[in-house]
Design brief:
This protein has 373 residues and is of the alpha/beta class. Helices cover 40% and strands 23% of the residues. Helix 1 packs parallel to helix 2 and helix 1 (33-48) packs across helix 10 (283-291). It is globular.
């Protein structure tokens, strides 16, 4: 099996937990940078120390909030990773950042260490919405962060927005999209709000304090944003992602192409083409095991033939590259085409339309079941 060409590094630290967040994070007022880096070095040494260093095309620092490591902490983390996984010329190196962590000194340190792409967690530009989300920044902070990153030489900047928020917030999502476009990002990610049980939002909904946005509102927000972004020249290349020419997220695109990748850090997932593995979810557990010289793996799963079929269908339908359709399947998918949910290209690839992407899960399940009969 060929060595993986992509590395994901999970940095769990956050200043506070967002109201909707169910990710593996560690809320810390003072980030234990040295402790984290010692455990990271130990994990890499234990898992990969006997292997020859290999070249990779992308490195992605996600979280959590990797920018909480500061300028020097990110530099040191990348140095540790790159001892084992050396980026090729032109490799994409991404860091997720909160707007309030972006300072001129930190941004200069990141770019000097090779970071050339930043995914900035803007989420919204409206004060009441950001407060409801438990975010620690405001719209003005995001604008300053964008300017700071550009000044530091970041040539690929992504901004995030969340839509389908409760109607009680009077959220003007179209205004958020317009403000985002005014900042001229290279890439945009749009995420519909999802209610997870073990979050503040999940508890609010369970108590009836918060009411979810109806499906009609979800669809309206998504289609309005799609229209604005398409008119501005963005390519809708994956269900939640838009990019200017040449600015697709190469690391995330590797996930959607089902290629192998390495994951290090607490809760990080990896995939070798046949088997998935994931590390200990809780930060303290990961530190203890890695520091003791143990592989901090928490679990693994080998994909079955049925799993491979399901993933091929789902991953194909979620991107603009589409899914190859056998002529015998045409009668099955014709109803989707007639409904305006999909289009069949001259190349034989079935591609979801924007309204089809809203039904992605149901369409993928239906076609998987059809192929597995």
């Amino acid at each position: 099996m060929l060595p993986p060409r992509h590395v994901y590094l999970h940095v769990p630290f956050c200043a506070r937990r967002c109201s909707y967040c169910d990710f593996s994070i560690a809320v810390r007022r003072n980030v234990p940078v040295d402790e984290y880096l010692r455990a990271l070095e130990a994990e890499i040494r234990t898992r990969f120390g006997a292997r020859q260093p290999s070249e990779v095309d992308t490195i992605y620092l996600g979280g959590g909030t990797p920018s909480r490591l500061g300028g020097e902490g990110v530099v040191r983390a990348l140095e540790l990773v790159q001892r084992q996984f050396r980026p090729t010329a032109g490799a994409e190196i991404t860091i997720e950042a909160n707007p309030d962590d972006v300072t001129p000194a930190a941004a200069r340190a990141w770019t000097a260490s090779g970071v050339n792409r930043v995914s900035l967690g803007s989420q919204s530009f409206q004060k009441n919405v950001l407060e409801w989300m438990h975010r620690t920044h405001d719209g003005a902070t995001t604008a300053r962060a964008v300017g700071t990153l550009r000044d530091a030489g970041i040539t690929n900047l992504s901004l995030d927005l969340i839509f389908a928020l409760p109607e009680s917030l009077s959220h003007n999502f179209q205004s958020d999209v317009e403000r985002l476009l005014a900042m001229e990002p290279d890439h945009v990610s749009l995420y519909g709000l999802t209610v997870e049980a073990n979050t503040p939002l999940g508890r609010w909904v369970a108590r009836g304090v918060t009411v979810e946005q109806p499906e009609e509102g979800y669809e309206r927000d998504f289609l309005d944003a799609h229209r604005l972004l398409a008119d501005a020249g963005f390519e809708h290349y994956e269900v939640s992602n838009y990019a200017r020419q040449g600015c697709r997220a190469r690391h995330n695109s590797a996930y959607w192409a089902n290629v192998s990748y390495v994951g290090v850090g607490p809760a990080a997932h990896g995939f070798d083409g046949d088997e998935r593995r994931w590390n200990a979810r809780h930060y303290a557990d990961w530190v203890a095991r890695a520091s003791a010289g143990e592989d901090p793996v928490e679990g693994s799963e080998r994909l079955t033939a049925e799993n491979h079929v399901a993933e091929a269908v789902y991953l194909g339908l979620r991107t603009s590259d589409g899914l190859a359709i056998h002529p015998a399947e045409l009668p099955f998918v014709q109803s989707w085409i007639d409904a305006g949910w999909a289009e069949l290209g001259a190349d034989g690839q079935l591609r979801c339309t924007p309204t089809g992407w809203l039904r992605l899960d149901a369409l993928a399940v239906a076609l998987t079941h059809h192929r597995s009969r």
